[in-house]
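User: For a reading group we're discussing how well predicted structures match intuition. Take interstitial collagenase. Before you show the prediction, I'll give you the sequence so everyone sees exactly what went in.
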Amino acid sequence: MCHLIITELIWEFSICADLLLSHVILNKTITESSAQGSSCLTHPLYDTSPPQGISPLNKKLAEMQRFFGLQITGSLDADTLAMMKKPRCGVPDEQVARFSIYGKKWQKRSLTYRIENYTPDMSVAEVDASIGKALQVWAKVTPLRFTRIYSGIADIRISFVRREHGDFNSFDGPGNTLAHAFAPGDGLGGDAHFDDDESFTFRSSRGVVLFIVAAHEFGHSLGLGHSNVPGALMYPTYSYRNPDTFVLPQDDVRGIQYLYGSNSRKDPSVDDPKPPTTPDACDSTMVLDAVTTHRGEIIFFKDSFLWRSFPQSQTPQQSLIRSLWPSAPVDIDAAYESRQLDTVFLFKGRKVWAFTGNQPVRGYPKTLTAFGLPKGVRKIDATLHDVNSGKTLFFVGNNYFSYDESRKTMEQGYPRLVNQAFAGLTRRVTAAFQHKGYTYIYSGPYMYEYDLGTGTRHRVLRNSYFLRCTNS
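Assistant: Thanks. Here is the predicted 3D structure of interstitial collagenase, as structure tokens, for the group to look at:
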């Protein structure tokens, strides 16, 4: 019975008694006498016996009022009821202190985390960015380092779940408890669970900002309890804060540095990493980094992100590049697929990476010279694999080279001028691919449709054409 209502509300000391208290107050269905007779009233870790003559419910109300800085009356007044109805964290409020600790901390400075699933409320890229930024809130002020892994057992496992989810700490549906996390340790230790019945957002106040909730829960994952300082990140109740301007309050800084010490690093790029800005498919000025096919889908690259366009779906799905290829570079220069090898090649600077499926190909990354390009070529602007000829074109400035995939050599007589092969193309090529018999050449924010068989250009389109933007 206790576990079925465990996230109704969790106040300090006695978990089950607190839950019954919230049920009494909010639902008016349990009497004080029945609560006193329940075997769930006490938790074996704590002595919750009330002083003689004081109702256990009134005692709990007084303890709660003391924690939140309310007038201590021991009775249910309007201020207390309003506080109880606020969305909050599902971790008990163990101590009355400006900041509190569990008495546990990680005995290492490099921690791993794994996102085990995603909420449908946000894109994969938005969830990844929110989680990463929330962890960096704590890394910025401590010696801690967080590394994401995609398989195996992580120190901090992150999941979106509903109701009963196997940890004897059920969620309660929309509202009330938003999430909970576990103190450092083995097993569930460090893990953070988010109630997927909530409406999570990237930064909008019309819902619950995942970054704020995650940053709070990761405080618990690192060993912090709740703070009774209003405005502290570790305050138990949720209030909207703009993720773009968020600064960790001093009470939280003092708490986490009490456990782990301060950050002595000097490199500002490490101290305060900038979260990636999610590109907008409808941005008329956007210049894509690269486009390639991949096992029947089309992949569009921009900065740290990609869109995957599946044949069976009308809307491309956005995610981080490293959610598909964990060891891939970001901000790439070019990409193409060799269907013969079932391999996708990604180019950045003088290096090239290769992946079959989502697995890296042994021996990569290699340098551009492995394709026979001159040593003076420091980067390429785009690549185009022609499925009919089996040749791959490498665009460098106003010129292009032709690579014979079957012979694995550059063809003689190159480089040649781009505008000799693609009539009317006067600007630098930024991306290229083939689809349904046509060749698409990107140059700046525009895309040009060619028929290589006849050498004619058919249409000029916006970059967002294949991204299904309604403004295209």
